[in-house]
């Protein structure tokens, strides 16, 4: 089947998901991000790479934080950034997703950064661009439903490589609400593609999707068992609305059993790093002592995120 | 109008006939098979050399979208599609707007269909008023108006007490109740089979148990009430096993599968192909293989198109938001042939699943070619090919997972009550 | 094919030209890849006080849209304060002037240097921009045309040599 992310030359045309991308492309993105980290240290934090290009942040679901990181990345590449909060504008007027896309194409968009509540929405846009022969317009998935958040997955891989150098000897644990997490799916796809020999997921059965083991991970329900001797702990965010209901009794109980505390972290390797995609729920997923502790690399993740997004944008812009 | 269909190979599964025989039609009926009656002078002769002559196909589920959804399709457009597909009898699910819960509506639908003079329609009435699962519909009145059975379409009854009573009441008259096995409050927020594909794509899942839980309930209630059941659109190997066991037990249960579930699995969703958003969901390849095998052994009685025309606006949206369903009436014969070929079945056995078997479920005399029978006939070229494109589909709905496929078989003529209503262009 | 001059000879000539103009305020910045090797040796030979800077001008190239990013990007590294510094930009070969233009743009994103000079091993002519080298080891008498690339190569033992490669 044709992979809609790649062009006829096997280069990245869109970034929609990490699942199905070859290892060489993942590595190339991480390698390209490397020199971009240095730009933040300059007096003038701007490169002329995307000068004159228009990047539309098309957010059908509100997320100020994610939108901001894409905006910073695009602006550091000298692109013109237009933010569209579609959640509150055109859908109310009966305009379809593809109507909106057609309209923005008519405004000479060069790139779309798409956040949508439905899994697969960026694929629909990419397919539409393909069918209408607009091959010079690129799509970056900034999170679709439960499906994927590829730039988050990439910045997580960048962070792991930064601290651990090599992927091939690592044990990595992903903790929390995997069922609803697009971040977890992108992390699993990237970790398995990059050759991490053991990827674990830890959480209650209610938050584990069916056949998760077929994605190449080991499923644990007990924290101390799952965290034993791991090199990397990746915490997931638990959405407020899921803390009580049919999936979980309460945020407190979740913290008691699956919250990352110094005691639970102690069974991991002493040099294990702790990651979180943010924003954190302190006292639900993670204890403040861990979040602010020496093993946490949560703020470097944010910094690396800018460089990774710059790398993705500049690679797409040149393919 | 007297028609002589000459030189064709006649296949009539109802009578286990498969031989070179001419067919003679007069006054809308079959008046001769093999030899012409005395004094027969044909006004039209159809040369069927190298072609198959079989009963017009019988489809257990064709949504014509009237009344209520005329923007999606009309009787006119969908009847043309049926003719192009060689389908001459169709059962119509009650999920129109308003639903088929009033005798007047059913009469109007039958009247409209009769005036068009294309396929014969067999309305399936709503089991409960407005399909709400609260009050019983006037079943006896609806049967007088033309309904052949009762169903909830895709809206399961939440209150088991009501379902129990509905089955009891239907059993009072011996009406068959057609039920789609959907648990009303389990997996109802899902959009794809709950398995590896849905997990990978981050699509909310519909577990197989949503089908089996419903079947356990239906079968137990059938035991209690003695109601005759027809299970529509089986999707899983597990569900199939339950129906098979119920049949073995001696319960009066029949079942069908759709062309989509017979040929596709959740793998075909690929990168969020909204054409594969169906109800029930496409399940695993293992399930599909089990359905294919069961249709061959006869555990599944009939194959249907589950024809559901849907417009582009409802499909060109993200997968989860897409309207479930696909157009299919024109693909019923080609997809039956494709299945038959892959299972090395004779044409006779293949055609049985789309002619006499579904006709018996409806309780109609359609689906067979005997002397004196209504002359509903499909003539097709088994060696021909049907290419599925938006342009060639006559249905107003252009959305099907089979777009772009080349399928075996090509309908050449469709005859309804002795009149040629479709001739291959 | 013209006889290529010996890199070590040119290197010596370059040092001779540059030495009188180097002081405590001078900083060297080499352009990846050949210019960085050259700058490394100049830095040592001239006893430059400020640590050596290196830049990859890929981000600033004017043919980015046509050629895309180079697959092996290097991290630019300016380990001294650019503000008010006297900078000598070092490259192996001066040709169209576009690389120098990109390098100048990049330098100024680190701050405002007092002055910038250009040192190259070879000037092959055929300029497309108004740029000239203050220090130059050798100037080719006859243009090579667009069919050949002239570049500095580094052997395993660290010795540098010039080579012509068909474009």
Automatic annotation (TrEMBL), chain A:
Pathway(s) where this gene product acts: Pyrimidine metabolism; UMP biosynthesis via de novo pathway; (S)-dihydroorotate from bicarbonate: step 2/3
Catalytic activity, EC: 2.1.3.2
SUPFAM superfamilies (UniProt xref): Aspartate/ornithine carbamoyltransferase
Residues that hold L-aspartate according to the record: 93, 182, 237
Pfam families: OTCace, OTCace_N
Functional summary from the UniProt entry: Catalyzes the condensation of carbamoyl phosphate and aspartate to form carbamoyl aspartate and inorganic phosphate, the committed step in the de novo pyrimidine nucleotide biosynthesis pathway.
Protein name: Aspartate carbamoyltransferase
Source species of the chain: Denitromonas halophila
Gene: pyrB
From TrEMBL, chain B:
GO CC, one annotated term: cytoplasm
EC number(s) recorded for this UniProt protein: 3.5.2.3
A Gene Ontology biological process term: purine nucleobase catabolic process
Domain Amidohydrolase: 341-422
Enzyme class: hydrolase
Gene3D superfamilies the record matches: Metal-dependent hydrolases (3.20.20.140), Urease, subunit C, domain 1 (2.30.40.10)
Annotated Pfam families: Amidohydro_3 (PF07969), DHOase (PF12890)
Protein name: Dihydroorotase
From TrEMBL, chain C:
Pfam families: Pribosyltran
Chaperone is among the record's keywords: no
Ranges where the Phosphoribosyltransferase domain occurs: 12-132
EC code(s) of this entry: 2.4.2.9
Keywords tagged on the record: Glycosyltransferase, Transferase
Entries under SUPFAM superfamilies matching the protein: PRTase-like (SSF53271)
A GO MF term: uracil phosphoribosyltransferase activity
InterPro entries: PRTase-like, PRTase_dom, PyrR_bifunctional
PANTHER family: BIFUNCTIONAL PROTEIN PYRR (PTHR11608:SF0)
Name of this protein: Bifunctional pyr operon transcriptional regulator/uracil phosphoribosyltransferase PyrR
Lineage: Bacteria, Pseudomonadati, Pseudomonadota, Betaproteobacteria, Rhodocyclales
Gene encoding the protein: pyrR
């Amino acid at each position: 089947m044709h992979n809609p992310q790649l062009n006829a030359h096997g280069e990245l045309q869109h970034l929609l998901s990490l699942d199905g991308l070859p290892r060489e492309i993942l590595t190339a993105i991480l390698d390209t991000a490397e020199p971009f980290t240095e730009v933040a240290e300059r007096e003038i934090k701007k490169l002329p790479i995307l000068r004159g290009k228009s990047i539309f942040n098309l957010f059908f679901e509100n997320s100020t934080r994610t939108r901001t990181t894409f905006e910073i990345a695009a602006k550091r590449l000298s692109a013109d950034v237009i933010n569209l909060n579609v959640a509150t504008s055109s859908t109310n007027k009966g305009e379809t997703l593809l109507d909106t896309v057609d309209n923005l194409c008519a405004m000479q968009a060069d790139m779309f950064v798409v956040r949508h509540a439905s899994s697969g929405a960026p694929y629909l846009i990419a397919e539409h661009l393909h069918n209408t022969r607009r091959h010079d317009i690129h799509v970056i998935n900034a999170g679709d439903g439960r499906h994927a958040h590829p730039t988050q997955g990439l910045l997580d891989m960048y962070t792991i490589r930064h601290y651990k150098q090599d992927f091939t000897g690592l044990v990595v644990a992903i903790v929390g609400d995997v069922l609803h997490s697009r971040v977890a799916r992108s992390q699993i796809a990237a970790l398995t593609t990059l050759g991490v020999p053991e990827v674990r997921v830890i959480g209650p059965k209610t938050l584990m999707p069916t056949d998760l083991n077929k994605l190449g991970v080991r499923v644990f329900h007990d924290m101390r068992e799952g965290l034993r001797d791991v090199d990397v702990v990746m915490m997931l965010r638990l959405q407020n609305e899921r803390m009580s209901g049919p999936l979980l009794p309460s945020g407190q109980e979740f913290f008691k059993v699956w919250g990352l505390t110094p005691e639970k972290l102690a069974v991991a390797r002493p040099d294990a790093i702790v990651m979180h995609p943010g924003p954190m729920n302190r006292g639900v997923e993670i204890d403040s002592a861990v979040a602010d502790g020496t093993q946490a690399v949560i703020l470097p993740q944010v910094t690396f995120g800018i460089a990774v997004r710059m790398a993705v944008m500049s690679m797409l812009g040149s393919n | 109008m007297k028609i002589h269909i000459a030189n064709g190979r006649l296949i009539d599964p109802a009578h286990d006939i498969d031989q070179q025989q001419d067919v003679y039609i007069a006054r809308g009926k079959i008046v001769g098979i093999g030899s012409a009656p005395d004094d027969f002078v044909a006004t039209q002769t159809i040369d069927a050399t190298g072609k198959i002559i079989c009963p017009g196909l019988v489809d257990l589920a064709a949504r014509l979208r009237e009344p209520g959804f005329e923007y999606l399709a009309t009787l006119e457009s969908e009847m043309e599609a049926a003719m192009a597909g060689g389908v001459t009898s169709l059962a119509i699910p009650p999920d129109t707007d308003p639903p088929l819960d009033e005798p007047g509506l059913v009469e109007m639908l039958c009247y409209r269909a009769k005036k068009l003079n294309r396929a014969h329609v067999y309305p399936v009435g709503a089991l409960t008023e407005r399909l709400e699962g609260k009050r019983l519909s006037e079943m006896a009145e609806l049967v007088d108006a033309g309904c052949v059975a009762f169903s909830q379409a895709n809206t399961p009854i939440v209150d088991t007490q009501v379902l129990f009573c509905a089955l009891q009441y239907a059993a009072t008259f011996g009406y068959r109740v057609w039920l789609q096995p959907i648990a009303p409050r389990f997996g109802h927020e899902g959009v794809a089979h709950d398995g590896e594909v849905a997990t990978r794509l981050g699509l909310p899942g519909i577990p197989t148990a949503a089908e089996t839980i419903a079947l356990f309930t239906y079968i137990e209630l059938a035991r209690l009430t003695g109601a005759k059941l027809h299970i529509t659109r089986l999707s899983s190997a597990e569900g199939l096993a339950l129906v098979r066991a119920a049949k073995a037990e001696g319960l009066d249960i029949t079942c069908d599968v759709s062309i989509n579930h017979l040929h596709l699995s959740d793998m075909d969703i690929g990168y969020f192909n909204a054409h594969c958003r169906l109800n029930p969901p496409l399940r695993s390849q293992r399930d599909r293989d089990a359905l294919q095998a069961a249709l061959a052994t006869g555990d599944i009685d009939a194959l249907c198109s589950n024809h559901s025309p849907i417009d582009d606006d409802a499909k060109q949206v993200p997968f989860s938001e897409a309207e479930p369903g696909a157009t299919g009436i024109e693909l019923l014969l080609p997809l039956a042939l494709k299945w038959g070929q892959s299972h090395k079945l004779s044409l006779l056995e293949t055609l049985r699943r789309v002619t006499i078997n579904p006709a018996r479920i409806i309780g109609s005399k359609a689906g067979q070619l005997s002397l004196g029978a209504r002359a509903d006939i499909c003539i097709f070229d088994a060696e021909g090919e049907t290419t599925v494109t938006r342009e060639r589909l006559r249905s107003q709905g252009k959305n099907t997972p089979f777009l772009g496929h080349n399928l075996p078989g090509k309908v050449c003529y469709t005859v309804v009550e002795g009149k040629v209503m479709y001739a291959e262009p | 094919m013209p006889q290529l001059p010996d890199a070590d000879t040119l290197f010596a000539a370059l040092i001779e030209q540059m030495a009188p103009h180097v002081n405590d305020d001078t900083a060297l910045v080499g352009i990846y890849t050949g210019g960085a090797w050259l700058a490394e040796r100049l830095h040592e030979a001239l006893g430059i006080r400020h640590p050596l800077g290196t830049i990859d001008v890929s981000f600033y190239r004017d043919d980015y849209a046509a050629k895309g990013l180079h697959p092996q990007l290097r991290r630019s590294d300016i380990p001294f304060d650019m503000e008010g510094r006297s900078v000598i930009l070092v490259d192996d070969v001066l040709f169209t002037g576009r690389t120098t233009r990109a390098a100048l743009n990049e330098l100024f994103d680190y701050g405002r240097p007092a002055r910038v000079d250009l040192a190259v091993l070879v000037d092959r002519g055929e300029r497309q921009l108004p740029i000239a080298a203050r220090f130059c080891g050798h100037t080719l008498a006859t243009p090579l045309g667009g069919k050949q690339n002239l570049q500095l190569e580094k052997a395993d033992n660290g010795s540098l040599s010039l080579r012509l490669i068909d474009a």
